[in-house]
Amino acid sequence: MKVGLITIGGELLNGTRTDTNASWIGQSIEAVGANIDWHMTVNDNAESILSSLDQVPKEIGYLLCTGGLGPTHDDITASVLYKYFDSKSVFDESYWQLLIERFKSRGKDIPLSNKNQAMIPEEGKVIPNPIGTARGLHFKNKNYELFSMPGVPSEMKYMMTNYILPIIDNHSEKNHIKMIRTTGIMESSLYEIIHPYLNTDEKVKIAFLPRFTGVDLRISSKDINYLNKFFSKILPLIDKYYYGNNNEELEDIVGKILIDQNKSISTAESCSGGLISDRFTNTPNSSNYFKGGIVAYSNKIKTDILGVNEDLLTKTGAVSEPVALEMARGARKAFNVDIGLSCTGIAGPSGGSKSKPVGLVYIALSSVDYEKVYCFNFTKDRKTNKLMTSQTALNILRLYLIKND
């Protein structure tokens, strides 16, 4: 089943807002066996919307539309659709009274501009919206069925989940999807490992989705048994880099292992500015294992709180292997935990030298019976370096925990 998508809004075209709706819709559609085969983003004016409707390819069976159903002057999608599908709009008095009551319950008077959201098509259907004021619209012509939704993500997702996806699912062959999340390996290297198992004639599709923090493999097939067999074939090949499925984050996986092993951890961070600690605390129940962190951005904090030797700092500099190790030891002892994790580096874009270039990062792990320092050369971009440092530190911890399980 081929599906089309029209996203409406000048803010999407000029870049002031990222179109996260399109990404979510695309993934949701594929999960029920369909595909977004055609997509246009247009301005919120009648001419642009009408033009996009005229350009919908003939093979599109369902057309999804987001944006322009609000109460303001630039929310004209509904009126354009009434005209295009040759349907009169009728005022829904009962829904208008419902909106009045909703606003009153919040201690507010409803603006008259919301009246346009109480209009319904004479030829067509409305899509319920219990979490917002703008109901969706469902029209049909000889070519396709159109579903128009608000651009507000939560309202769009409700309509997709409870109204639209069941309709598409009923007319599509289910598509089974598995997501493999990896880190610590480049896309090209990952491809070299698994490419012998890739065959265009097979009943499985695989997509490589690279990010700064790793590469996701999205594997799909109409045959769930075939998908499971393929999954079991390639997983042992990439076991060192594989850490989770679907939308699991690395910090979630590491947190589960720490809980299972009943181990505690603390951090000492310089170049990452507390990002490792931030990611630990993104996970529910992280207080069970994460006891605290120190952002040791200055040498004084490194010496006074973490106990880094002042002479060592003078001799090797703050960005060095021995300092990273003493920072990890200091964090472990200061918080009385099982593991200390530290990082020190040159985030950039300035501050580097020939011997210590921008992107140079040392990450250290310290426990009672194991200590090691790792050296990396990342990028020239400050924020990217911080993100890659936090991801790499978490993965170093993951590999250590797995090895010592």
**CATH class membership of the largest domain:** Alpha Beta
Helical content stands at: 25-40%
**Most strands sheet:** 6 strands, mixed
User: Which topology of the largest domain does CATH recognise?
Assistant: Molybdenum Cofactor Biosythetic Enzyme, Chain A
At the fourth level of CATH, the homologous superfamily of the largest domain is MoaB/Mog-like domain
What is the gyration radius calculated from CA atoms?
Answer: 27 Å
What does this 3D model show about the protein?
- By secondary structure, the protein is α/β, with parallel strands linked by helices.
- The protein has three domains: 2-169, MoaB/Mog-like domain (Molybdenum Cofactor Biosythetic Enzyme, Chain A, 3-Layer(aba) Sandwich); 176-245, Alpha-Beta Plaits, CATH 3.30.70; 250-403, CinA-like (Maf protein, Alpha-Beta Complex), CATH 3.90.950.
- Helix content is 37%, strand content 24%.
- It is built from 14 helices and 17 strands.
- The chain has a six-stranded mixed sheet with strand order 2-1-3-8-7-6, with helices on both faces. It has a five-stranded mixed sheet with strand order 14-13-15-16-17, with helices on both faces. Strands 10-11-9-12 form a four-stranded antiparallel sheet.
- The longest helix is centred in the last third of the chain and has 22 residues, at 382-403.
